[in-house]
C-alpha cells in the first residue's frame, strides 16, 4: 500500500534493479583456478574480500593482486579477473528503467549499493546495452556507492549519511532492498522500507507509486 508521506525513493542495485547471481562469481574463479567452489568461498570469506573491496579498503589493483596471490595464478590477466568477478551480474530488464523514469516525475530517486568499482563499470555497460542509457547516474539524482563512501549496508551510518547528504527526512523516504538485514537497519532510523523478494519485482512493489 502506498505511503502518502513518501517524497523520496532509495533503491538497492543488485536483485532490485539489476538481476544478479552471487555464487556464479566464486564458481567462475573456481573454473579459472581448478579449485572447488567451496574452497574459493572459504578464501573470500576468511579474508573478508567483499567487505574490503566494497568499502574501498582494497583498490582495483589490490583486488586483482589478491586474486592472483590466493589462487596462485601470477599471470592471470586483469581482464580474466574482471570477467570472473563480473559474471555474477546478469541482466537489467528495460521495464525497470521505464518504471524509474516514470517515478522520477513525482519522486526524488537515489541509488544505494554495496558494490565495487569493477562491478559498477560493468553494470553501466549492461544498462547501456539494455536501454541505451550510458550510466546509472542518468537515472538517479545521486548514486551512493559503498566503495566511495567507506561504509556498507547494513551499517546504520550509511543511511544516516545518505539522508544528511541528500537533505532527506527519514519519514518521507522509501528504501527498497533484497537483503533483510539492510531493510531492518534502515527501518531503525525511521525510513519506510520494502523487502524485495524474488520472483516479485519492483514493478509490482511500486505499482501504486507509479500512477
Number of distinct helices: 11
Number of strands: 5
- Overall shape: it is globular
CATH topology descriptor of the largest domain: Rossmann fold
**CATH architecture descriptor name of the largest domain:** 3-Layer(aba) Sandwich
The first-to-last residue Cα distance is 13 Å
Q: CATH superfamily of the largest domain, please?
A: HAD superfamily/HAD-like
From the helix content, strand content and strand pairing, which structural class follows? alpha/beta
Keywords: Hydrolase
Protein name: Hydrolase of the HAD superfamily
GO molecular function: hydrolase activity
InterPro entries: HAD-like_sf (IPR036412), HAD-SF_hydro_IA (IPR006439), HAD_sf (IPR023214), PGP-like_dom2 (IPR023198)
Can you tell me about this structure?
The protein is of the alpha/beta class. It has helices at 23-33, 37-46, 49-54, 60-70, 78-86, 94-103, 117-131, 146-149, 156-166, 180-188, 202-205; strands spanning 8-11, 108-113, 142-145, 173-177, 192-195. The protein has a five-stranded parallel beta sheet with strand order 3-2-1-4-5. Helix 7 links the parallel strand 2 (108-113) and strand 3 (142-145). It starts with 7 loop residues before the first strand and ends in a 6-residue tail after the last helix. It comes from Dyadobacter arcticus.
Which SSEs are present, and which pair or pack?
Elements: E1 8-11, H1 23-33, H2 37-46, H3 49-54, H4 60-70, H5 78-86, H6 94-103, E2 108-113, H7 117-131, E3 142-145, H8 146-149, H9 156-166, E4 173-177, H10 180-188, E5 192-195, H11 202-205
Parallel strand pairs: 1-2, 1-4, 2-3, 4-5
Helix pairs in contact: 1-2, 1-5
Protein name: Hydrolase of the HAD superfamily
InterPro entries: HAD-like_sf (IPR036412), HAD-SF_hydro_IA (IPR006439), HAD_sf (IPR023214), PGP-like_dom2 (IPR023198)
GO molecular function: hydrolase activity
Amino acid at each position: 500500500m502506498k505511503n502518502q508521506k513518501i517524497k523520496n525513493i532509495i533503491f538497492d542495485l543488485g536483485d532490485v534493479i539489476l538481476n544478479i547471481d552471487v555464487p556464479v562469481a566464486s564458481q567462475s574463479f573456481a573454473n579459472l583456478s581448478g579449485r572447488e567452489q567451496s574452497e574459493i568461498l572459504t578464501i573470500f570469506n576468511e579474508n573478508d574480500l567483499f567487505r574490503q573491496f566494497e568499502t574501498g579498503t582494497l583498490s582495483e589493483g589490490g583486488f586483482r593482486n589478491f586474486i592472483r596471490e590466493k589462487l596462485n595464478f601470477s599471470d592471470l590477466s586483469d581482464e580474466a579477473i574482471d570477467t570472473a568477478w563480473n559474471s555474477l551480474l546478469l541482466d537489467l530488464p528495460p521495464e525497470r528503467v521505464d518504471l524509474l523514469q516514470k517515478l522520477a516525475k513525482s519522486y526524488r530517486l537515489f541509488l544505494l549499493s554495496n558494490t565495487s568499482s569493477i562491478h559498477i563499470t560493468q553494470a553501466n555497460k549492461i544498462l547501456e546495452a539494455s536501454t541505451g542509457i550510458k550510466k546509472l547516474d542518468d537515472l538517479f539524482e545521486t548514486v551512493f556507492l559503498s566503495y566511495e563512501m567507506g561504509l556498507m549496508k547494513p551499517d546504520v551510518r550509511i543511511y544516516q549519511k545518505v539522508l544528511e547528504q541528500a537533505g532527506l527526512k527519514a519519514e518521507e523516504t522509501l528504501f527498497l532492498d533484497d537483503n533483510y538485514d539492510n531493510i531492518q537497519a534502515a527501518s531503525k532510523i525511521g525510513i519506510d522500507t520494502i523487502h524485495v523478494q524474488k520472483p516479485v519485482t519492483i514493478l509490482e512493489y511500486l505499482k501504486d507509486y507509479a500512477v
